[in-house]
Amino acid sequence: MQRLRPGPVAxxxxxxxxxxxxxxxxxxxxLHMDIAxxxxxxxxxxPLGQDAYGRDVLSRLxxxxxxxxxxxxxxxxLACLFGTALGLAGGFLRGPVEFVALRGxxxxxxxxxxxxxxxxVTLLGPGAATLIPVLAVLYLPGxxxxxxxxxxxxxxxxxxxxxxxxxxxxxxxxxxxxxxxxGGPVLVQLSLAAASAVVLESGLSFLGLGVVPPAPSWGLMxxxxxxxxxxxPLLLLWPxxxxxxxxxxxxxxxxxxxxxxxxxxxTRGRRRAALLERLxxxxxxxxxxxxxxxxxxxxxxxxxxxxHPVRDVSLRVMPHETLALVGESGSGKSLxxxxxxxxxxxxxxxxxGAAWIDGRDVLRLDEAALRRxxxxxxxxxxxxxxxxxxxxxxxxxxxxxxxxxxxASGARAAWRRAVELLRHVGIPDPERRAHNFPHEMSxxxxxxxxxxxxxxxQPRLLIADEPTTALDVTIQAQVLDLLATLRRESGMALVFIxxxxxxxxxxxxxxxxxxxxxIVEQGRVAEVFARPxxxxxxxxxxxxxxxxxxxxxxxxxTVPPPYALPPGCAFAPRCRLAxxxxxxxxxxLTEVMAxxxxxxxxxxxLA
Amino acid sequence: MVALSRREWxxxxxxxxxxxxxARAAPADTLRFGLSSYPPxxxxxANTGTAALTVKTLLHRGLLMFGTDGKVKGALASSWARDGxxxxxxxxxxxxxxxxxxxxxxxxxWSLEQIMAPxxxxxxxxxxxxxxxxxxxxxxxxxxxMKQPTVTLPLMLATPFAPVIAKGSLNAxxxxxxxxxxxxAQERGVSLSFAAFAKFYEPGHPKLRAIHMPVxxxxxxxxxxxxxxxxxxxxxVPWQAMAGIQKNPKLxxxxxxxxxxxxxxxxxxxxFKDERLRQAVxxxxxxxxxxxxxxxxxxxxxxxxxxxxxxxxxDPKYAHGWNYDPKLAKQLMAAAGVPxxxxxxxxxxxxxxxxxxxxxxxxxxxxAIGIKVxxxxxxxxxxxxxxxxxxxxxxxQGQTADNNDPDGLSAYIDGTLPPDNxxxxxxxxxxxxxxxxxxxxxxxxxxxxxxxxxxxxxxxKVVPLAAxxxxxxxxxxxKNVHGFTNMPGGLNFYSGYSLENVYFG
Amino acid sequence: xxxxxxRIGVSVLLVWVVxxxxxxxxxxxxxxxxxxxxxxxxxxxxxxAVAALRVQLGLNQPLGLxxxxxxxxxxxxxxxxxxxxxxxxxxxxxxRLPRTLExxxxxxxxxxxxxxxxxxxAAMRRGGTFDRIASWLAAAALAVxxxxxxxxxxxxxxxxxxxxxAGGYVSFARHPLRHLVLLAMPAATIAVGLAxxxxxxxxxAVLDVSMRDYIRTARAKGVAPRRILARHVLRxxxxxxxxxxxxxxxxxxxxxxxxxxVFNWPGLSGLLVDAxxxxxxxxxxxxxxxxxxxxxxxxxxxxxLYALLDPRVRHG
Lengths: 607, 505, 316
Known about the structure:
The complex is a heterotrimer. In chain A, 49% of the residues lie in helices and 13% in strands. By secondary structure, chain A is α/β, with parallel strands linked by helices.
């Protein structure tokens, strides 16, 4: 969960506060008539003028805010609550619940709002208290539909299935996994409902089905101003303006809420290359390597200033070589991979360094050049193949797209090539499978398809971001084999991002260990595993379950977040070798032995 | 959204101006009259609203009608006279129905008997129960015998509620009439079209060859249609638009005080059983504020029974019997044992702005003397039902007398009649009932005047309804429309009678 | 086949439930059709006349009997006659329905043409100038009631510039060009609010989809942005947009009253309101029934669209 942006919250809060504090403002009595001055223009005593009964418009506007906002918020919240519950229950429990939830809403929708309002009002009598259930019922179907549609689209996803098979309670599945996924549309619906509640209130009040005059409400004010809208248009303007501003604030709040609960955690931001870096680009590339990162630093701008989840990362991968990038979650390894592809989320930007591929610094390429590079020279596969594949496109189409994006071949040729690729990555009966949609394939097959997509244009560099994490162990081994074979055949370089040391041992030639945004150790896998030169590497190795059944030793504490890095060595607070001087000064990554780099002062104590 | 309207604008700019002109150009002898609602039914004798009345004044004529001077004049009857103590006789002129048949005494007798019939839904059904018999001694003479002397029969027959249609021609769509126009086309809810009846009894009438009546239920749409030239004339001009129409050099506004607003009371239960509290309410309201708030100043304060100033029965002595006097109101409340006021509920409707506005001003003014009023504002249909069932303590009424004779107020002030939405509920008024009956039977003008003077005195005390104000009823038309008469007071809704005189000049 | 049969069965059940609720509800609401018909204009009808009319209209029969009779009539497809002037309800609805459908259809086309691209652009340039201006406009469009938009249009184009008639209706057959001119303003008025809703939904859905992993995959493949938008983002974003559009179109079936009034457009909503105000029971029932049948049909179309848009629904 991200932090909520303060602006919209403040705006909505201010409106609510204003409404709450109205009695303290010492305004005119909103009910006091002064018919001698009806429709009077604004004066000092009545800054917004007087209405058709000579009542003070400002006072009515502010007092009306209380009624209107109370009605709008409670009715839309009520509808949201019940609608979401019904939609969730209908979509997830299916069967009779689904039938009742959906058809019940159909019945509601079949009734024109006026008729519905009339029925409820005759039962409960007119007034704000009646308006709330009327409006809630009117908005209920919207929420049910949106939530239901959302549930439909996620209920068959692997993780939901997985949780179900793990025996998670249905309620927990609904609340924990589905709700965040449908949160976005629901919040939009909420803001729409709240806004139209006030507008509808005007219509219903006009028909005598809403707030009872002379009590002020925005809807009533709009309704009353209608008769004189050509004589005194300002009377209409004020409540409409108040309403617009409220809607805008609500919309902004909903946007912010959406961002905050969004599982993808991406917030607003702008991509900006630091000026200095642009003027002083990184060092010239060494010839040969498939990828050379030099001093890569990634920044995320926050209200409290930039934070740096990746700092000064330098590494080199040669053709035919597999480099594993290892670290706990939050260490910055995935961001490093994404930066290399030019796929950083909008919130993050490259703050320094260079990434040389094919003699070009990809960090300084424009989007068009990057696009030509991506999928051709350098390709990437992601952790969750289901969510990474477009659910509404056939597999071969998606693979073919990668081919078409970099060649002139037509759709048919691309399809044929896609089938070949599917065969190449070991998918049985590829002609038939080519027509499948992602949800029709198993997890392992999906990842094979992803790999097929990535190697479609024989990239020189393949970045694999935790490609096996979502798979079970047998499938995992098969996919690793496949990747190893492909690399051998094609001579491409492979950057393998993972948190799993056994996987590293199996696939990689060299390993770079990341901690809190920095590389802390680098070297050949066999050497590093045999003799780690950084306490973190040692601790990581010790935390892996071993074949000799000795107990793994978990590392105490957690990775510090990028906004709260300790001074000096970032690992010092968790390090059993730490001494006082570890918590100060900067620590460079130093080559202490041949092809062995570490960022520890006490590496020799480990040796 | 801006882009959208701009696009509309551009598409429109190419085609519209020329088109709008051609589409609008109507033949010079066709009047385009914007109706305020589509007549829900054209049953000849039932009251189905003002729009229906206007249409019926085109299609039908009865024995008598109201002239532009507000006086009763002959229609299908060329002359009429009292016939014996209880009777009236009518001489028919040579008139034809729209199907070409002659209008005979038999048709008249049959039509009037339909109004009296036990299954009748006619507006005058109740009043026609005073008829003993109808005779047709010859094809040109009709005699109506009343159960007792009735001076007001011609007034009843002159309303558009008693048209004569060809015997046996009644059907769901109406009946065959003898009015100045025939119905040539109708599209339910949209419009009605009429053509002049060439064989109308009055030579040279109607003056226009055709009338087209599109319906504009929304008042702003109606005004917009007039101002943009879609129609030549509209009825029921909304009060807020009157000033704008007066300022428009191409248009003429024609207003008279017609209907009136009032408060009716529940005399069966609640505080207003006590006539002193009814009086207190009648004295506590500053009526010019209702005129201002509900009718944009287009109306006249009314502090006595709704009898127009032009009426011979108007008496300045009683015309201000319910003058604004909050001190007196407080004294009356003290006398009734509630010096500090009380709580009560006022029934009105939110569907019609004038009812709502009147209720809000009344609420405000009564609060000033300590009466806390809660407003009950259902939709109109519910309001009618609650009125009929007496589910109120007092209620806002907007109504029109049946004619400008004090007898035309019977339905609204005679609480002895069976309970009804139009008058105070369970508020028996034996004195008023008696005086109204006497007035109806009295043929001597001086004695009638005395009777109605007494009636006004009693009404001021009993308060069968607390009248509030006359409201101006407006027609608006383009400058070249001539010959229309907007009739005052109780005759206002019969103004359609004068459409036969309308011409373009 | 079984699926279709089941669907039809459910639909019939739905329509029956609606018919029953309407029958009961409209009679539960106070107001007597006979009394209202005869007390137009605030005059006092004779109570005996009202009673006579009630007998004529069959309103004095026991409720159960009326219900059985109503349902029997509906079974043979007879919607009955208006209580006001004995016009057959079915004929009146047939006359009015195409006008309302036309109005809604035209408004929907306009709204989609404006709202969808605007939402798309706003989402792509999130936080940019266009996004901000469009969001403001959408909020204003949602805040301003249709009658204000409509009245302003009439004031400007009809009363001010005299470019178009202030309102009214002419059938297409009689005067095609004028028909379209008269259609333009009310359709545009409805479209304003609808476009704002579509804008909001499109913007949200596109933002939502563009954060999905598969969009990142497409970018990683080097697919051109325009193609990503067309093939990946829009396609996936359409489902919620279609849901919201259908929902709003459905509610417009009985909800264009104010626009119909302002532009004097004789559509179905106006008929419904007039019928409710007059407590014209057969007319109210007929209109609501037709609306619910249409709604069921609309639902079917949406379901088919879902299947077209999302293979998971097709197979699931």
